[in-house]
Amino acid sequence: MEQPTSLLEYALAVIRENILTGKYEAGKKLSTQDIAEELGISRTPVNAAINRLVAEGLAEAIPRRGTIVRQLSKKQIKDIIEVRMLLETYAVKKAVENVLKNPDKLKYMKDILHKFDEINDDDYRMASSIESDFHRALVELSDNEQLLRLYDTNWSVGSAFYLYTMAKMPSSKQRKLFDEHKTIVRLLEEENKEELENVIKSHISAVKDVLDYI
Known about the structure:
The protein is mostly helical.
């Protein structure tokens, strides 16, 4: 996860990740006080972050009960994945044009590749974090800030690991998907726009197969 620009962004990133990786389960009450103490910050940015998550649909404010983690339906998850595919397939077209001008970003993505081999079967949190860092770096190569904001708001990779958590699917079942990141980096270096777009589509489409396990 990249360094946040404010306490609000920090709280938002941590709470969102905790929801999408299953640490905060569906139906769990999001206590501003408890989360503020956990993060070591004041309640103000935590409260603002929770309100943002309500607006995004990850949390739900219920009268006389407070704010709880929302249970995403299969359709909602499918919709999120389809939007992610649209955003990433558009991003790769620009990423290929920009990759040689951004060697540091390419090196960053290569460095992430080694981390995929370290993921344990039930370590959804680590897997989600690594996958998110990799794909966000890919979208960043598009050099389109609005696209990146849309990508983040759509919960991007996090929704996939929300699925894996619900299905209790071990990381070993996702090994083929993890290995595809090497192909993505290679195609970026080769500036093979058409093949890279096809790989991204296949890579993201495979996530929808997990719906059958729920």
